[in-house]
Amino acid sequence: MSLRVYAALLVVQVLFGLWPVFGTVVMGHMSPEALIGLRTLVATPLLFLMFRPGLPPRGPNGRRPWGTLALLGLLGIAGNQLMYAEGLNRAGPINAALLTLLIPAQTLLLAWVSGRERPGPARLVGVAIALFGALTLARTDGLAVSDRALWGNLALVGNTLSYAAYLVLARPLAERMGGAAMVTWAFAFGALEALPMTAPALLDAPLGSLSAATWVAVAFIILGATVGTYALNAYALARADSSVVAVYIYVQPVVSASAAWLVLDRLPAGNTLLAGALIALGVALSIGLVDPARWIRRRGAIDPPPSGSDSP
Question: For FRET with 188, which of 12, 66, 145, 258 sits at 20 to 30 Å CA-CA?
Fold first, then answer.
C-alpha cells in the first residue's frame, strides 16, 4: 500500500477528529439544526459535482432503488447528523469523539442480529465491553432526566446506532452502484429529509451577524469534514484493507481531545478516560484487532511444552 493511501487515511481521521471542536465553536452562534442544514444543503451539490453519479441502476425487479436510498439518507445522513450535532452541543467534543468509536462494534452487532455475519465469541464479548463503556460514559450522578450531558450522550449513542444500521444496509447497494454514487444520492435524500427541522432553524439563524472566524469553522465542516472526508475515503477504501482502515479510527479521539484542550480549554475527566479505554478495548476485540485465541495459539507455538518429571 502506497504512502499516499496512508496519508489519506490519516487526513480523514484528523478531519473527522477536528469536526467536533469546530462544531462546538459554530454552535455557540447557531442551533445544531441550523448547522446541519448548512452542512447538508451546501455539501450535497458539491458531492454531485465531485462524483457526478448517474441514475442508480435498476434492480432485478426493474425499479431503481429510490426507497432504499431514502432509508439510507434517513439513517446515515438526516437522523445521524441531527443526533450527532445535538449530542455534541449537549455533551461536548470529547464525548462525541469517544462514542464515535462505537460504530464498528454496533455494526458488527447489527450484522450478527440480521444474520449477515457470524462473529466468534471474542468479537461478541468485545461488543459487550464497548457498550458497557458507552454506558459508563453516559451515566451521570442520579441519572437526572434534566441532565444536559446525559441526553447529549444518549443522542450520540443513537447517532452511532443509526450510522451502524446505515452501514449494514448500505453494503449491498454500494457494491451494485459504487460507494461514491450511493453516498451522493443518500446525501441528497438525507438533506431533503432533514429539511423539516433544518429549514426553520436556518431561517432563524443569525447568518448575517456571524464573525469571519465562525464562517471559517462552517467552511471547514462543509469542505473538510464532509466533502473532503468523503473524497479521501473513496480513494483510500478502494486501496486499503479493512483491517488497516479500522486501526485509524483510534486517531479520532486523540485529535478531538487534543484540539478540545488547545482550542476550548477542555480536559477529559477520569470517568471519561475510563469509558474511553473500555470502548477502545471493546472495539479492538469486536473488529479483530485483538484476538485472544490467536495470542494463545502463538504462545503455544513459541513456548515449549513442559517436560516430564525426569527434567533436570
Answer: 12
312, with CB counted inside 10 A (0-12, 13-18, 19+), is exposed
Domain boundaries, the chain: 3-291
Q: Which of 137, 141, 38, 146 shows the shortest CA–CA distance to 96?
A: 137
**Phi and psi of 249, rounded to 5°?**
-60, -25
What is the distance between the alpha carbons of residues 190 and 197, in angstroms, rounded to a whole number?
12
Say which amino acid occupies 180: A
Determine the residue type at 285: L
Residues 294, 285: Cα–Cα separation, whole Å = 12
- 245, 215 in Cβ contact below 8 A? no
Contact 132, 292 (CB under 8 A): no
3-class secondary structure, 229: helix
Cβ 239 vs Cβ 2: under 8 Å: yes
Residue 3 in grid coordinates: 504512502
pLDDT tens by residue, the chain, 312 residues? 678 888 888 898 889 889 999 999 999 999 999 999 999 999 999 999 999 999 999 988 889 999 999 999 999 999 999 999 999 999 888 888 778 777 777 777 787 777 766 767 777 777 777 677 766 665 544 434 447 778 888 899 899 899 888 888 887 888 888 888 998 999 999 999 999 999 999 999 999 999 999 999 999 999 999 999 888 877 776 676 555 565 667 677 778 878 888 887 876 666 667 777 777 777 677 666 666 666 555 555 555 555 444 433
DSSP 40-106: HHHHHHHHHHHH---PPPP-TTS---HHHHHHHHIIIIIHHHHHHHHHHHHH-HHHHHHHHTHHHHH
- Judged by DSSP in three states, 31 sits in coil
Per DSSP, the three-state class of 269 is coil
